[in-house]
Amino acid sequence: MRIIKKLFMQLFLTIISIILISGLPELIMNKNVTMYFQKIKVVLFDVIHLNEMTYMNQGKQRLFLDDIWSPYLYSLTILFGALAIAFCMAQLLTWCTLIMPMFIRRAVKNILTFLESLPDLLVFALVQMAIVLIFKKTGILVSNVASLGAEDRIYIVPIVCLMILPFVYFYKMMILLSEEELGKSYVEMSLAKGMRRIYVLIVHVTRNTSEGIFHFSKSVLWFMISNLLLVEVIFNIHGITHYMYSDFRPEMLAACLILLVIPFFLLYALFEWTIIRLSRRGELI
Amino acid sequence: MIRSIKFWVGLTILSIFIFSSFGFALFYDSDVRQVQMLYDDDKNLIGGAPFEPSLMFPLGTDPLGYDISQKVLQGAKFTLLAVIAIGVFRVLFSFIVAIPFAFYLPEKIRRGLDQLLSSFYFIPLTIIAVFILSPILSEQLSAEGEEFFLYTFTERIGLEVIILTFLVVPLLGSMIGNMMASLLKEEFIEGARLLGASRWRIFTKHVIPHMLPKLVIVWCQQCVQVLIIFTHLGYFKLFFGGTDMDFNPMMADPPKSLSNEWSGLVGDYYIQIHANPYIALGPIIMFGIAIYAFQLIGEGFQHHLQTRHYKKEKRDRMSRKQNLVDEPKLSFDFMHKRGA
After folding, report:
1. What is the pLDDT of residue B340?
2. Bond preceding residue B50 cis, omega within 30 of 0
3. What is the pLDDT confidence band of residue A166, given thresholds at 50, 70 and 90?
4. Number of domains in chain B
5. A222: pLDDT strictly greater than 60
6. C-alpha dihedral, B14 to B19 to B22 to B26, nearest 10°
7. Which residue among B112, B280, B288 places its CB closest to the CB of A119?
């Protein structure tokens, strides 16, 4: 019960801070504090009465919620897809890397440091160029480089773009955490008992690093939501951030961000709850 | 002395960028050369702008014939100094916020506050920065048809630095606060307290020496983050120090950066990605190099921290080993060894 109460407090605070921040452009434009609070009031009203909120689409007033569902789900698919693929690939490759000899591991780590420093914009540009290049050389269009409108949905390119850097981050973090874990005495103990290295790695080390990875994944997600905006603008994808960017009103910003935040918030709350329960159980035994 | 190669390589790259940029301003007055047509020795036209990267133009030229490598050189000082400054401010303010957080709050309240502050993980920085900064940095069009900025040049830079700083202070502050709180639980702090050290003494004599190296690493990470945000802002045509918009309804010029700083170059040239990819990639690659330099500094410094006592220890262990070999001889010897 206490956990649920805490979660609601947290969600409430997130929403409040989003609303407070979304009013800031107004404050900067008019240099007037009372206007800022008026704007906040308007935003708050709109967010509470979300089902009546309207926006302008091609010169017509339309209900916000009627139109947002399908792009919203589309954006979520891209985000979740990228996050899941990045995580799984990183985990698999971590296992492969950690059974390799030391010098390969060191080389992999150095390469990862290099890859980590690629700016995301460069990654997007390279993906775009690679697709065009493949098309020019072989005539095979791997995927459309840009979506043509609201009806046209592309999945492969945005997911690939969004997942490359999170994959590198996860991979590096997992290797670092696992190496730290491998130095602990229980690993030595289980190896001495005759357990296979790969078994210890997959069952014990992964379980023990999962909490650290979980906390780390929050900042990866934070980074990915920012990237979603870039990807949607670059590839002309009509997702939720596209609405946010083309409308550019504080109400819209607040509503879209809140919609975007809620599923991830719930997901993380669920994970955290299970992790706390699992670790408690371990302590009790 | 720091003995990590990575650290020095990173630092060298950054200082070369900054000093050569200042040198360029000092000796050449930041005069970017413009070559629109290129002739060979017999006065035959062999090419026109934009040029591809070559020995003459390391990063190529833009469609107007300006040498991009010199533009990059001119802008390096603004971008890198701004990044370093924002990084320092972020760490400094977060550290100041973290002090009461770690010292005065009881454990329970701190943990609750930490939970609440972690809600900031769900507010993506780029989106917020784009929204807040666009009224500041973009040139506006007044009703009379005049272009104007809402703020003066220094105000714009100041506001951008302040906003990019304070958006992360909640998260970073709670992170540094937690680092400090776990430090305060160490045994030597307990010992110092028992010996009668005041809070001030513990802070200056124990906390600061332990935190400073960690803060250097955090600073490197923050600088990387700021650089990435600069590329994003550049893509959205929000340049450091302001974006010069052209509101001419006929053939408007593209938005221009006022000082050739790097995010401006990214924003200016990204649109050319399909026609002249080299032009678009140049400034972004420079960002990549700068990010790599900061990463190297961070990693090298961390390596230095982990191994700074290493050599001493190694010698100790070696000498102890020798002692171990020597000692048994003194106490007792196996009979058969002596016999052989």
Report:
1. 42
2. yes
3. very high
4. 1
5. yes
6. -160
7. B288
Q: How would you classify residue B50: left for phi > 0, otherwise alpha for psi between -120 and 50, otherwise beta?
A: beta
Q: Which of A17, A25, A221 sits opposite B119 (nearest CB)?
A: A17
Predicted confidence band of residue A151 (pLDDT cuts 50, 70, 90): low
For residue B158, tell me if it sits in a domain: yes
> Which chain A residue has the Cα nearest residue B263?
A121
- C-alpha A143/C-alpha A148 separation (Å) is 12
Q: Which tens digits make up the pLDDT trace of B223-239?
A: 988 998 888 888 888 88
Please indicate whether, in this complex, the C-beta atoms of A222 and B227 are within 8 angstroms of each other: no
Strand-strand pairing, B243-244 and B256-257:
antiparallel
Q: Which residue has the tokens 């404050």?
A: A27
CA distance B41 to B311: 62
The answer to whether the CB atoms of A28 and B136 lie below 8 A apart is: yes
In one letter, which amino acid is A146?
A: A
Least confident of B2-6, B40-44, B128-132: B40-44
Residue B112 lies in a domain: yes
- Please give the pLDDT value at position A280: 65
Host domain of residue B92: 69-339
B119 touches chain A (CB under 8 A): yes
Give the tokens for residue B240: 């450091």
The answer to whether residue B33 is domain-embedded is no
Q: State the nearest Cα–Cα gap between B124 and chain A, in angstroms.
A: 5
Q: Is A180 on the interface with B (CB under 8 A)?
A: no
* Interface touch B284/A121, C-beta < 8 Å: yes
The larger pLDDT score, comparing residue B330 to residue A266, is at A266
Torsion of Cα atoms, A63 then A65 then A68 then A74, to 10°: -160
Are A125 and B295 an interchain contact pair (Cβ–Cβ within 8 Å)? no
C-beta of residue B303 within 8 angstroms of C-beta of residue B295: no
Within a domain: residue B163? yes
ipTM of the complex as predicted: 0.84
Work out the average pLDDT over A152-180.
87
Question: Which CATH number characterizes residue B167's domain?
Answer: 1.10.3720.10
pLDDT of residue B90: 93
B131 CB neighbours in chain A (<8 A) are 22, 24-25, 248, 250, 253
Cross-chain residue pair B291–A119, CB shorter than 8 Å:
yes
Using one digit for the tens of pLDDT, what is the confidence trace for B117-158? 777 777 788 888 888 888 777 777 766 666 777 777 788 888
**Would you call A122 and B288 a contact, using CB atoms and an 8 Å cutoff?**
yes
Residue in B65, B93, B84 with CA at minimum distance from that of residue B15 = B84
How far is Cα B110 from Cα B202, in angstroms, rounded to an integer? 20
Average pLDDT, chain B: 79
